[in-house]
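Bit of a strange request maybe. I'm writing a small parser for C-alpha cell strings and I need a real example to test against, not something I typed by hand. Could someone generate the C-alpha cells for this chain?
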Amino acid sequence: MTLKKILLSCFFIVCSGGINAQNTETDSLEFAHFDCGIIQTKQKLDKQFFASTPPIQLRVNNEEFTYATFQLGKRKNKMYLYLRILADNICIKKDKNVDIYFKSGEIITLKNEYPLNCESFFARQLKKKELQKLRDNDITMVKIYTYKKNYELYLGEVQNQDIKHQLDCLLGYKVKKSDEVKIKKKDKKNKNQEENVNP
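Reply from user aminoacidic:
Good idea to test on real output. This should exercise your parser:
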C-alpha cells in the first residue's frame, strides 16, 4: 500500500467519521450552511498540506438506509472532489465511474484517480471547466458506478447551495503551512484563557 493511499484513507476516515448510515434519519436536506467550516490539520497528503470542507451527507435513493458523502478539498491551488458511499465492501475501479447530472440536462463523467479499492472511495482533481460547471449549474443527481451496482444520489436546492458556498470558500482559502496552523491554534488558546481570567 503506497503512502499516498494510506494518507487518502486516513483523510476519508477522519472526515467521514461519526456518520453511521444505518442510524441516521436525516441527510443534508434540512437547511443550507453558511459557515465555511474549512478544516486544516498538520497532516500532509502526498507531502503537501491540504484543507477540506465538511462533508455533505447525501441519501442514496436506490438503496435503503445507505448514505454517501460529497466533500471538497484543496492542496496547493488544486481543488479535489471526494465521494464515499457509507457502506461496507463496495469496490470502485480506477475508471470513469462517476456521472454528474445537471439541471440543464448536461452530464459530465469523472474518472477516479484513487486506486482500485473496496472502501468505496472516489477522489478526483477537478479541472477549471468542471469547477465552473459546479459553480454555475445545479446538480440533480450524482451516479457512482461500482462492481455490484450503481448508486444514485439525488440533490436538492439546499445541497446545491452548500456545494456552491463551499466551492467559493475553498477557492478563496490559502492552504497554510503547519507552523501557521500551530500559531493560529496557540493564539485562539491564549485568547480563550484571557477571556476566562477577565470575564
